[in-house]
Amino acid sequence: MNDAYSAPVDARRIDDLDDLAVLAEPVRRALYEYVASQSEPVGRDAAAAAVGIGRPLAVFHLDKLVDAGLLEPSFRRLSGRAGPGAGRPAKLYGRSSRELRVSLPERRYDIAAGLFAQALEAAATGGRPAWDAVDDAARRYGEDLGREARQRAAGRRSRDHLIDAAMTVLREAGFEPRAGTGDRIVLRNCPFDALARTHQDLVCGMNQSLMSGVIDGLRLTGITAELEPRPGMCCVIWRDTAVAAGT
Q: Taking 80 as the threshold, does the pLDDT of residue 246 lie above it?
């Protein structure tokens, strides 16, 4: 195993942090909160009046919020008139549909919710035990991640390149994979931590199935996903039997 498993936090999270940081400025945050609370897009004059600032300053901050992806601009004639003499359309601002998600450490409860929803549907229609359905959904999701990793590796299909690609995909899912000692790859973070604290057996079993699916999707032999609970970490590790055997 090599040091590629220690790659930095993924760029998406850094971008989200940078964009959310624009709300640290009090006037800008007040403008965002006002616009977000309205049922319809608002104009520059209305936004300026709502927070008690001048129009030029409001324009500056509103456009900064657009640049950060927090607001979406649109254009409409506020007079309701059309044709010659109706004037230019006004620039309006509304809350963006973009979702920004920042948590430190990384949490991905959206993944868990999606897997549970699939499992409930499968259990309801197929008569399978819900626990088994969760494991099946997790394994399928993991297989998708493994296949994505193979695609990212492109023509570089050596064992190390495939594992490196898988680590990148798992890092983006919030697991923080790192090379451990000897034959282990450890997952330093559980993206479902709050659930694991109250439903450990369910979440750890789901994670093991997910990781087994990743390995299957990679189409690599000699690697297994094993339960090895440790405080503050994911309860699953990857064990590379080729390394353990000294090959």
A: no
Total residue count of the chain as it appears in this document: 247
Domain 14-95 has CATH 1.10.760.10: no
Q: List 185's β-bridge partners, or say none.
A: 179, 238
Residue 10 has pLDDT above 80, yes or no: no
Q: Where are the domains of the chain?
A: 14-95, 105-244
The maximal CA–CA distance of the chain, rounded, in angstroms, is: 82
pTM of structure: 0.73
What one-character-per-residue DSSP string does 34-94 give?
HHHH-SS-EEHHHHHHHHT--HHHHHHHHHHHHHTTSEEEEEE-TT---STTS-PPEEEEE
CB 207 within 8 A of CB 142: no
Q: What is the DSSP letter of 187?
A: E
Beta carbons within 8 Å of 25's beta carbon, 6+ residues apart: 61
- Find residue 164's DSSP bridge partners: none
Torsion of CA 55, 56, 60, 65, to 10 degrees: 10
CATH 3.30.70 fits 105-244, yes or no: no
ω before 26 within 30° of 0 (cis)? no
